[in-house]
Amino acid sequence: MNTPARRDGTPDRRKRGAQPERGGASRNSGSRDARSAQRGTSARGAQQAGAGRGSAQRGSAQAPSPQRHPAPAGKKKPKPQRQVTAPPLLSNAKPARHQNVEPDASGGHAKLPWGEGERLQKVLAKAGVASRRAAEEMIAQGRVEVDGMIVREQGLRIDPQHAVVRVDGTRVVVREELVHVALNKPKGWQSTMSDDMGRPCVGDIVAERIAAGQRLFHVGRLDADTEGLLLLTNDGDLAHRLMHPSFEVSKTYLATVQGEVNNRAVGKRLKEGVELEDGPAKVDRFQVLELGEGRSLVKIVLHEGRKHIVRRLLDAVGHPVVRLVRTNIGPVALGDQRPGTLRVLGRDEIGKLYEAVSL
Q1: 223 noted as active-site residue
Q2: What pTM, to 2 d.p., does this model score?
Q3: Which ranges in the chain belong to alpha helices (H)?
Q4: Is residue 143 located within the same domain as residue 206?
């Protein structure tokens, strides 16, 4: 077999079918091998980089930032929220029973501390004003005042010992221990709670009440020969004011006098004033009711409280008194009450008495 010769005459010893060292095919093959190697390296690098990122992410989830709390397992990570000021802490503790209570800014009635006092509608019911349901309706209608303020709030608690309660403008006395009674004092009885001489007196009529612990004051006096209305109460302030002339609480008398009275002449003189041994005195109203058989029945209204004032006035105008009966003290009337009997005053009468003396 002949070996082909090269151009320079040297034999060509390469094997048939072998690829030349230089040429397009060998260069392309080398390039492909290099690119494959590069891609392999890049893929491995990408895998390593991805693994690194995954590790970094897992690490960041396991090691939370000190500024945020990790999301609960199995739940979505909450979105960040704007920072707001935390609300004040609330206390569920009950308020103390004794506190200093001030009126509210609107000038309304000051509420009592929790659990103290009595509900207003209950107080009105106990005072005999109305049932609790009716009292609630009166409150809703604005007919009830407490310490000068109209109350519309249901369930308001008040102190019955000190609160001033009015319904339709009339004072309602809500203190259970207060007593107000009217006595028709008989003729011949003394206006005292006891008598050293053993004579019959007002104290004998109210002996059972005194024995039960009630301390009663009689409002003013009636001399032994004068009969009629006498008020008794254990409210010393009320008794004092009813007797004091500065409050001008009127008192009405029916007097049977000697002689036939000239209504115009005698009435004018008594209204203008009569000079007595202890100073001038006058009446507020005078009226002749009956004439006959040398006697007259007259009606006198005045607010004087001096001793025997009516008898002395009528004596001064020439008409001595034969019989004298007191029938009214302010808004309280004797009516048809029998001599020697007691009558508990009604709510309206009591309220008007307190109103008359600004209590």
Answers
A1: yes
A2: 0.59
A3: 24-62, 120-126, 132-140, 202-205, 207-211, 236-243, 263-272, 309-316, 347-356
A4: no
